[in-house]
Design a protein that fits this description.
This protein is α/β, with parallel strands linked by helices and 254 residues long. Helix content is 42%, strand content 15%. It has a seven-stranded parallel sheet, sandwiched between helices. The longest helix has 29 residues, at 107-135. The N and C termini lie far apart (36 Å). The relative contact order is 0.16. The structure holds NADP nicotinamide-adenine-dinucleotide phosphate (NAP). The site of NADP nicotinamide-adenine-dinucleotide phosphate (NAP) has 26 residues, from helix 1. This is 2-dehydro-3-deoxy-D-gluconate 5-dehydrogenase.
Length: 254
């Protein structure tokens, strides 16, 4: 391990997609707290995140990209490396959910979630890993999956397919890249208070049902993901490959 503190990210650069809000913002701030500089990739301005990261004394760079377009992956990673010299950590966080009955689910809603949640994360991981292999530095890839990587869900056909697929791809990439010094793992958040779950929290019955099943007795907050993200980004997890860590207030244990 390179540092006396195995959880230190000093000198590392983390590329985080969708870092302007929600879980991506919580992860970016946690990584900066542990010492990493941050490259935020997305389609919305990340000024709040930038302020917080810089307040921690870390560098911040942002790159615009619509992540529904997987061919953007190569440009994004090239631009990140040009700006910062390296990418040590990739967090595939950006994601969307489309809700409708399976009987009438549209192809457009299928394609959108599969592209943002599965296809682009794969090609971002590929582009980052190519540079990690080329430089021989190795690195960390963290995919943000879901409870619906384990469970079926309801009215979320494309989301369930994409997040189950991303958990599978996490294991595949770990098998291929572990020997190259690249750790590929995933975090499965439970139910968190973000834009992604506004509709669920606004539905009184669903809100009550969900809360009633969470042993911790509350929705997760973006900062709750920080510990797992830092662990999987750091030397402390150097022998951890292809796993999915649930951060769910105990949801899966019920
Ligand atoms: P969120 O608040 O809706 O944030 C989603 C992020 O993805 C935003 O930054 C969003 O950008 C970005 N994004 C979506 N489509 C994009 C596109 N085409 N191009 C670029 N960026 C795009 O949701 P969240 O809850 O923080 O979700 C973060 C991740 O955690 C997602 O992968 C989600 O599936 C997963 N997750 C969330 C929960 C939960 O309970 N909240 C549970 C399990 C898994 P804009 O702000 O521009 O839309």
């Amino acid at each position: 391990m390179s540092s006396s503190n195995p959880f230190s990210l000093a000198g590392k650069v983390a590329l985080v997609t969708g870092a302007n809000t929600g879980l991506g913002q919580g992860i970016a701030i946690a990584l900066a707290q542990a010492g990493a500089d941050v490259v935020a990739v997305g389609r919305s301005s990340a000024t709040d995140t930038e302020r917080e990261v810089k307040a921690l004394g870390r560098k911040f760079h942002s790159i615009y990209a619509d992540l529904e377009r997987s061919h953007e992956a190569e440009r994004v990673v090239a631009q990140a490396i040009e700006a910062t010299g390296q990418v040590d950590i990739l967090v595939n966080n950006a994601g969307i959910i489309r809700r409708n009955d399976a009987l009438v689910f549209t192809e457009a809603d299928w394609d959108a979630a599969l592209d943002v949640n599965l296809k682009t994360p794969f090609f971002l991981a590929q582009a980052v890993a190519q540079s990690m292999v080329k430089t021989g530095r190795g690195g960390k890839v963290i995919n943000i999956v879901s409870m619906l990587s384990f469970q079926g869900g309801i009215r979320t056909a494309s989301y369930t397919a994409s997040k189950s697929g991303l958990a599978g791809i996490t294991r595949l990439l770990a098998n291929e890249w572990a020997s190259r010094g690249i750790n590929v793992n995933a975090i499965a958040p439970g139910y968190f208070e973000t834009n992604n779950t506004t509709a669920l929290r606004a539905d009184e019955q669903r809100n009550r049902d969900i809360l009633g099943r969470i042993p911790a007795g509350r929705w997760g907050r973006p900062s709750d993901l920080g510990g797992a993200a830092v662990f999987l980004s750091s030397a402390a997890s150097d022998y951890v490959h292809g796993t999915v860590i649930p951060v769910d207030g105990g949801w899966l244990a019920r």
